[in-house]
């Protein structure tokens, strides 16, 4: 019986081999090996080299990550799809267990050299190392990328600004005779596709319009697809944190015009407002875009407000200074007048000495004393007259300064009202234009 055991084992193994179905993984392995065994990834996959390889592109904007107005950069998260036909990767699915689609490593097959012209920095998410290939030879390459692109950012209407940035796709080396581009979806579908966009950020996606064009150069004609990403800023947070507090501060300073001009508390009040406005500007400077191309309108408004505050405070300080000098100069004269001068004091002392110690000629002494008294009275009257004239001149000058101050105050008050009115009209107009889009 011992020699029969090997025959029994061989027969049993043959029976198991016939009854057990062949695993599908072996067909997939065999198909992959057959496709890549004689494949040359360095050659454009066409049988007729005169035929161009058509590459279909699709772009889906998923999020706006950063808008750098100072460096004119836009950072977006984009889902990017490439589809093309590879004539060397087709097979008959009935010969391989009806396998109609497989995944192949991207590094093992030919791929189009498509780039984005506006790239200034590339911050990729983890690359997908595989592509899908179906039995007809259609290759689908999908990837998510973070695109840092150059864009002409206009922040003049901040925070009601709308940005239009382009993403231009074209081949680096292949002309339109070798690699041509086309849209995977219709332009209308691409334009109004907002389902994948994240609406939780500061920016809102309006549309993604697209266009096909041919770039002519000395090396040949290159096909290119251009996607215009139109986004707008949500302004409510900036209206609450920047515009409304600034307008409130200006209204408070506007109320300072009702304080009497000669009151020194007006200078203290205006100084406090100016310091508060300066602190507000410093704290809010990080919230405003730093653009080197054009100053935002809100920055111009803040500068004009600061200029009005400084001008109003300077006017009040100069007025107090001039009034103080006039009052000081008007007080020196009455003191000299009321106290008398040294010559008049000497004459009085001499008259008393003569009246006490001299006993000669009473008539002449009385006449001299009378004449001296008249001179003293005349001198005092002249001093009093000069004093009152100086007081009248000082009062007239003070009235003149006060009249000039009232005119300047009136002009500044009207300037405040005109500035706030124009700015309110401008903001309402910008908000209306923003809301229409």
From TrEMBL:
Record's GO cellular component terms: postsynaptic membrane
SUPFAM superfamilies (UniProt xref): Neurotransmitter-gated ion-channel transmembrane pore (SSF90112), Nicotinic receptor ligand binding domain-like (SSF63712)
Quaternary structure note: Forms homopentameric as well as heteropentameric serotonin-activated cation-selective channel complexes with HTR3A. The homomeric complex is not functional. Heteropentameric complexes display properties which resemble that of neuronal serotonin-activated channels in vivo.
Topology of the protein relative to the lipid bilayer: Multi-pass membrane protein
Protein name: 5-hydroxytryptamine receptor 3B
Function in brief: Forms serotonin (5-hydroxytryptamine/5-HT3)-activated cation-selective channel complexes, which when activated cause fast, depolarizing responses in neurons.
CDD domains the UniProt entry points to: LGIC_TM_5-HT3
A Pfam family assignment: Neur_chan_LBD
Gene3D superfamilies membership: Neurotransmitter-gated ion-channel ligand-binding domain, Neurotransmitter-gated ion-channel transmembrane domain
Signal peptide interval: 1-17
NCBIfam families found in the cross-reference section: LIC
Protein localization: Postsynaptic cell membrane
Coiled-coil features, chain-numbered ranges: none
Domain Neurotransmitter-gated ion-channel transmembrane: 242-328
Source organism phylogeny: Eukaryota, Metazoa, Chordata, Craniata, Vertebrata
Alphabetical keyword list: Cell membrane, Disulfide bond, Glycoprotein, Ion channel, Ion transport, Ligand-gated ion channel, Membrane, Postsynaptic cell membrane, Receptor, Signal, Synapse, Transmembrane, Transmembrane helix, Transport
Principal cellular location given in the protein's record: membrane
Catalysed reaction equations from the record: Ca(2+)(in) = Ca(2+)(out); Na(+)(in) = Na(+)(out); K(+)(in) = K(+)(out)
GO molecular function: serotonin-gated monoatomic cation channel activity
Membrane-spanning intervals of the chain: 236-255, 267-284, 296-314, 411-434
Record-stated family: Belongs to the ligand-gated ion channel (TC 1.A.9) family. 5-hydroxytryptamine receptor (TC 1.A.9.2) subfamily. HTR3B sub-subfamily.
Domain Neurotransmitter-gated ion-channel ligand-binding: 30-235
């Amino acid at each position: 019986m011992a020699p029969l055991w090997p025959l029994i084992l061989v027969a049993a193994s043959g029976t198991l081999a016939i009854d057990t179905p062949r695993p599908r993984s072996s067909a997939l392995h065999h198909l992959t090996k057959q496709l890549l065994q004689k494949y040359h990834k360095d050659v454009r996959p066409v049988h007729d080299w005169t035929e161009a390889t058509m590459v279909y592109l699709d772009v889906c904007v998923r999020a706006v990550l950063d808008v750098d107005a100072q460096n004119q950069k836009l950072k977006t998260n984009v889902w990017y799809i490439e589809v093309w036909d590879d004539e060397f990767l087709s097979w008959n699915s009935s010969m391989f267990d009806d396998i109609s689609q497989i995944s192949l490593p991207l590094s093992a097959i030919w791929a189009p050299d498509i780039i984005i012209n506006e790239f200034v920095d590339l911050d990729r998410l983890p690359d997908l190392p595989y592509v899908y290939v179906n039995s007809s030879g259609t290759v689908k390459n999908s990837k998510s990328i973070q695109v840092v692109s150059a864009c002409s950012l206009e922040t003049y209407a901040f925070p009601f600004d709308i940005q239009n940035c382009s993403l231009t796709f074209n081949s680096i080396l292949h002309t339109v005779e070798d690699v041509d581009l086309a849209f995977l979806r219709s332009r209308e579908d691409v334009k109004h596709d907002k389902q994948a966009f994240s609406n939780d950020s500061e920016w809102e996606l309006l549309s993604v319009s697209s266009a096909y064009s041919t770039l002519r150069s000395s090396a040949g004609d290159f096909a290119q697809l251009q996607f215009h990403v139109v986004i707008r800023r949500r302004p409510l947070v900036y209206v609450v944190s920047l515009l409304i507090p600034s307008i409130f501060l200006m209204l408070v300073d506007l109320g300072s015009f009702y304080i009497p001009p000669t009151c020194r508390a007006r200078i203290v009040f205006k100084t406090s407002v100016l310091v508060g406005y300066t602190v507000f500007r410093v704290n809010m400077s990080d919230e405003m875009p730093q653009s080197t191309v054009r100053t935002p309108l809100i920055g111009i408004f803040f500068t004009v407000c600061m200029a009005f505050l400084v001008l109003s405070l300077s006017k009040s300080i100069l007025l107090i200074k001039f009034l103080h000098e006039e009052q000081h100069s008007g007080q020196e004269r009455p003191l000299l007048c009321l106290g008398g001068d040294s010559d008049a004091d000497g004459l009085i002392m001499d008259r008393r000495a003569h009246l006490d110690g001299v006993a000669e000629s009473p008539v002449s002494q009385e006449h001299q004393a009378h004449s001296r008294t008249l001179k003293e009275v005349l001198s005092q009257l002249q001093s009093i007259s000069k004093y009152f004239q100086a007081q009248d001149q000082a009062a007239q000058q003070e009235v003149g300064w006060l009249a000039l101050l009232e005119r300047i105050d009136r002009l500044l008050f009207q300037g405040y009202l005109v500035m706030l009115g124009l700015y309110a009209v401008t903001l309402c107009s910008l908000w209306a234009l923003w809301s229409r889009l």
